[in-house]
Amino acid sequence: MPSFYKAFLLTSVLFYFTNVKSQTQINYYNVKDYGAKGDGINMDGSAINKAISDAAKAGGGTIYLPAGNYLSGSIHLKSNICLYIDQGATLIASSDSTLFDKPEKSINDIYQDYGHSHFHNSFIWGEDLHDISIIGAGKIWGKGLVRNGNKGDENPNKSISLLRCRNVIIRDVTIFHGGWFAILATGVDNLTIDNLKVDTDRDGFDIDCCKNVKVSNCTVNSPRDDGICLKSSFALGYARSTENVTITNCQVSGYVEGTLLDGTFQKTDPKNHEPTGRIKFGTESNGGFKNITITNCVFDDCRGLALETVDGALLEDVTISNITMRDIGNAPVFIRIGARMRGPDSIPIGECRRIIISNIVAYNVDDKQGAIISGLPGHYIQDLQLSNIRIYYKGGESKDAANITVPEHEKDYPEPDSWKTMPSYGFYIRHVKNLKMHDVQVSYLKDDYRPPFILDDVKGGILYDIQAEKNSGTSSFVLKNVEDIHISQTNGTKDTYINKAVRKDL
Questions:
Q1: Kindly report the CA angle at 121 between 117 and 123, in degrees rounded to 5?
Q2: pLDDT of residue 6
Q3: 28-240 to CATH, choices 3.10.310.40, 2.160.20.10, 3.40.1280.10, 1.25.40.180
Q4: Is the pTM of this model over 0.70?
C-alpha cells in the first residue's frame, strides 16, 4: 500500500475518534456526572433537570439514567431531548409535594375535569415542545402522586404530562402507580406509545385532542379507572378533535394494582369494587373523534368497549376488530350519543356515524346490561355495522326484567351502569339509522328469561345469520317503532320484512 494512502487512512481514523466520538459524548448526559446518587435516599431532581437543561442548550441529546433508584420532584422536559431510563433504573416521584411544580393557571376549568385543566403539577412534564422521547427498559414509579384533585389542590397527580407537543415517542418503559394519569397527552401530534407496561389505579393513557397517534404492544392494568382512553376536551380553550389514531396489539385489565407487574394477576373482589380497565373514548368529547382503528386487543377482568359522544362532538369513521374479552363487568359494547353538553352553550348535540365492529368474542360477561347502543330521540347513531360477534353472558335474570322501561339518561355521565338492568340480555339498540348485523351469536351461562334483542326506534336495518339462545316462550326480537327492517337466516324466526311497526315480537 502506498505510504500516502496509509497516511490518509490514519488521518481518517484519528478524525473519527477525535470528532465523531467526542460529538457522541457531548450529546450523551449521564445524570451521575451531574451529582445524581441513584440511592433512593438523596434527591436527584436537580441533577436530572440540570442535565436536561445543558443538553437542550447544546441542541439536544440523551439524558441517561443508569441502574439505580432516583428520587425526584418535577422533571422538566425540553425539545430535542431523550430521557433514557435504563434496565434496573427506577425514577421515583418523591412524597414531598414541595418538590413539585404547582398547577398553573388553566385556560379554563369549566368544561373538563380538574386533572385535564392543569399540566405542571406532574412528575415529568413538557409544554410546547418538539422531538422528545422517554425510552428504556427502566421504571417510572409515581410513589408520591395522588390519584385525584380538586380546585385549589396543589398536589402532583400525573406521571407524564404533555401539552401542545409534537413528534413524541414513549417506548419500553414501565409505569407503576401513575397517579390520576400515567400519561396525559393533550394537543400532542405525531405521538407514538409502544411496548409499555402500566400498572396503576387510575387512568393509564389519556390521549386528548391529539392527531396522528400510534399505541401498540402495550399492557395497561387499571382496576379503578380506564386503561386506554381517547378524549377531546376543551382544555386547549377550543374544540379540537382526536383523529388518525391506531391502537393495536394491546391488553387492558382490572387486576389488583401491582399484580400485573409481580405476575400474580389477582382478580378484584366484585363485592367491593367492579374493575374498570377498559378501552374507551368520549367522556370528554367537545372536539370529536375521527379515523380511529382499534385491532388485536385483549380485555380481561374489566369493563367493555365504550364509544361515547356526550358534549356535542362528531364520532365518526371508526373500525374495531379482533377483540377478545373475558370476565367483563358491564356492557361488552357501549355506543352512546348523550346530551350532557359540558361546553359552550352554542355547541349542538353530537353525531355518531360510520362505525364498523367485527370479530369480537367475549366470555363470562355480566348479565345486567348486555350490549347497549343508544342514540337520542332525533339524534341517531348512523351507519353501524356489527359482524362476527360471539358473546357468552352470565345470564340469570327473571322474566320481570323484560318489562323494564329504559330511561334516556341523556344528561347523565355516560356509563352502562346508569341503566342498572336492561330488558334484553344480548343487545339493546335504540335510536339508530342504517344498522347492519350479521354472524352474531349470543347465549347465556345461566337461564335468562329476557329476549336477546330489542330494537327501539331503528330506521333501516338488515339483520341476518343471527343466532340467539332463548327460553321457551321468550321472543328472539322485540321491535318497537321500527321502519324498513329485514331479518333473515335467524334461528327460530322466519325470514321477515317489516315496513313499519309500532310493536312486533318475533
A1: 130
A2: 52
A3: 2.160.20.10
A4: yes
